[in-house]
Amino acid sequence: MGDCAASYAPDYEVVLHASGPKRRPLVGKRMGAVLAGYAPVAPAQRTHPTEKPVALQRLLIERSCPEGGLVLDPFAGTGATLVAAQLLGRRAVGVELEERYCEAAARRLEQAQREGLGEAA
Q1: pLDDT value at residue 11
Q2: What is the CATH number of domain 50-120?
């Protein structure tokens, strides 16, 4: 985001991972610097300008957050990270400043919960 008229669009996203006072290894073998195979959310399907695919967020959570762990997304947007955490049974806290995105995230979480309950039945 930022200045869309006078700067190049970044060709990457930064992923920050914190694990508390003790170092915790990631699950599985080390992956490269670029995570291929996760197409961006198509512009026509986006609710937020920088929306991430739930499948990508799920991979990152599976590899870095243990079962019973807590996921923090300080820029939650429309909740892709929160949905991924919910699907994996992780606890999650999302922070978003814009009310319309908070409402979209709440709808996505409710829908994911309904669909998840339908699969279990």
Answers
A1: 65
A2: 3.40.50.150
